[in-house]
Structures are given as C-alpha cells and as structure tokens.
Amino acid sequence: MVIDMYLEIVKKYENERPYGKIELPADANKIKEVEKYFRSPLPTDLEKLLTELNGDGYLLFSAEKIEEENQMLTDVWSDTFLDISKFLFFAENGCGDYYGYRKNENGNYGDEIYLWEHETQESATIAASLLEFIEQYYEGKI
Predict the structure, then answer these.
(1) Which secondary-structure segment (H or E) carries 31?
(2) Less Cβ around it within 10 Å: N or C end of the chain?
(3) Which DSSP category does 99 fall into?
C-alpha cells in the first residue's frame, strides 16, 4: 500500500485554507515539462508532492503555476536580482514573497526551503524540508 504523505498532511490542514482546494495529481508529462523549463530534475520532495496533489489552491502551486510564476519572476526581477534564476519557487504567502528551493554550488536543488522577500530581494532558509515547511506554515510558525 502506497502512503500519500503530502496529500495526507495537506488534508490535515484543510480548515486552515478555507478557499483552497486540493487538486488531482499532476500529469507526469507536465512534471517533465517543468523539469525541462528548469533544466534540472525537480527536488524529490516536490516531485512527490505533485504526484500526490497538483497544488492546494491556497499555498502550494500546481505544476503549471510553478512554471508560470517562475517565468514571470525571472522576467520581472532578473535585471535587478541576478540570483533569481537559482530559485525554484513553489508557493507564495500572498504578500509578494515566495517560498522555494535554491540551487547549490553543484547546480542541484538542496532540501532546504527558502523565503524570498520581494521588497528586499533577500532570501533566508526557513525549513529543512518541504514537509517541515508545510507543517510550520499551517501551524502559523512561518
């Protein structure tokens, strides 16, 4: 029996996102398109999340929105924030700040989750993993 860890944890917090709606799993071809856009495999945890649910309509982006938002942010910020292309954003807080992974010196995405603040263009590690990020966000710790 396969356990859908991310689906279960997001369902646990359904009352915290009254306007959200868990989406059906992302299509495998769309995940491949997103990987092609980033020229890199998705972080394992993010790929697992997308195979369980394609966003939650509140915090977590769908595969389509991951690609759209990252493209938009690159278009808008690449002239002033050169490191923007090192990020893979998969969520936002509704105030213009984004959550995502950052490429390490080897060109791979680490497990840590970063908050990128649009006003200062600074980033900081806020969680050690995607699971920790989801739990902390919905528990009001982030």
Answers:
(1) helix 28-38
(2) N
(3) E
89 forms bridges with which residues in the sheet?
100
For residues 46 and 48, what is the distance between their CA atoms, to the nearest angstrom? 5
User: What digits encode the pLDDT tens for the residues 52-69?
Assistant: 999 998 999 999 999 999
Q: Which CATH class is domain 5-138?
A: alpha beta
Per-domain residue ranges for the chain?
5-138
C-alpha span between 84 and 132 (Å, rounded): 23
Q: Which of 59, 67, 74, 69 is nearest to 130 (CA)?
A: 59
Question: What pTM was computed for the model?
Answer: 0.91
Q: Which two tokens stand for residue 142?
A: 């982030």
Bridge partner list, 92 = 98
